[in-house]
Amino acid sequence: MTVPLEKVSEAARVAEPGEGISVDELRLASRNHAMPMEMLREDVTPVGLHYVLAHYDLPAVDRDTWTLAIGGCVRTPVTVGFEELTSMPARTVRVTLECAGNGRATLSPRPVSQPWLNGAVGTADWTGVPLNDLLERAAPTDDAVDVVFAGADHGFERGVEQDYERGLSMADATSGDLLVAYAMNGEPLPVQHGYPVRLVVPGWYGMAHVKWLQTVTVIDGPFEGYQNKAYRLRQQADEVGVPVTRMEPRALLMPPGHPDFMTRDRIARPGPVTLRGRAWSGWAPVERVEVSTDDGTTWTDARLEADAGRWAWREFSAAWDALPGEHRLRVRAHDAGGRVQGDVPAWSRGGFANNGDQPVTLYVLDE
Fold this sequence. Notes:
The protein is mainly beta. The chain has helices at 23-31, 82-87, 131-138, 170-173, 226-230; strands at residues 67-72, 78-81, 91-98, 121-130, 146-157, 160-169, 179-184, 187-188, 198-200, 213-219, 232-233, 242-243, 250-254, 258-259, 266-268, 271-280, 286-292, 300-301, 303-304, 314-322, 325-335, 360-364. The strands form five sheets. It has a six-stranded mixed sheet with strand order 14-15-22-21-17-18, with no helix packed on it. Strands 2-1-10-5-6 form a five-stranded mixed sheet. A hairpin with a 5-residue loop joins β1 and β2. The radius of gyration is 21 Å and the shape is globular.
C-alpha cells in the first residue's frame, strides 16, 4: 500500500516566516508533555511530571507474556521473560533524560515538529538489569558491529512504516551504565514510560532510550534504520549530517517569584531572592554554572550543590538582591570536558541539541 502524499510528513520542514504552530503540532503537544519548571526543585522528578514523548500509539503489552529476545550475531541466542529478568542481579541508576528537541519551539526559523519549549527533561531512579550482563550471556561474535533495539510501538514517519528502532555501536552498548529497566522511582514502569521494560542509555538524548523493548539484535555492520538517520544535525535537508548522541551541557533556572497565568512571566517583590536550578551534561560532569540577572551583561558563579551521581543533574543556587523593575535572568553550564552552554541556541533543521540558555523574565514590584 502506498501512503497518500498529503499524509506523508515533510522531512524536517522549517516553518515559513510568521507561520504559527499548526493543528498537527498541537496534536503532538496534547499527547506529549513537558515537566513543569517548578519541578526543578526536586532531586528526582515525580513519575507523572517527568517529560513524555511517544512517537506512535502507546502499545498494550502483557507483562506475563512479554519476552525480550537477544539474537543476531551472537553465539547463544537468549530469550527472557519478565519474571526471569526481574530475578537477575539489578542496579538502580539516577539518570537525567532530555529530549533531543528540547527548546525547538523558540528557534528561528522554527523546525516543524513537537513544539517543545524548555521542559522536555526529567530525572528518575531507573532500576533494571545491566545491558552488558545480557549481552555477555548471548556472547556476541567477533564480527559484531552494532546493536539494534526495537520497541513494540509501531507507526509511520515520512511514509515509512516501522517499529521504533535505534542502534548503538558495540562500544557504546557495552560501556557505561546502560540498563534494561523495569522500574522507575521504585515502582513498575507506567505505560507512557515503556511498561513493562525499556532501555536506559545514561548521558544520551531521549531518542536512544527505546521504550516497550522487545528485541535486541547484534548486527555485523552499521545500523541504517530510519530513527538513526532522522536524528542527525543538518543545516540543509539533503545533508548526511552529524549523529545526535549525548546531551549537551545545559542549565535551567527554576523560575523565581510567582507566575502570570497566561504569559508565565514571573512576578516578585524586592529583596533577597535565591536563584536555583539544575544543570547537566552527557559528555562530562558539570563543574561550573554561571548566573546573570542583567540579560547576560555580567555573569557570576553560582554555588554547586553536592553531586547526585554521574548521570544526574546537579543543583545550583545563587543569592540575589532583587530591585524593582524588569529583569532577564539567564544561566549557563560548563562541564569538565570544556563544553559550555551557548548564549544562542545552535540551529539545525530538526531543532536538535540546541542548548542555548533560556532567559526567564522577572518583574520585581515597587514594594
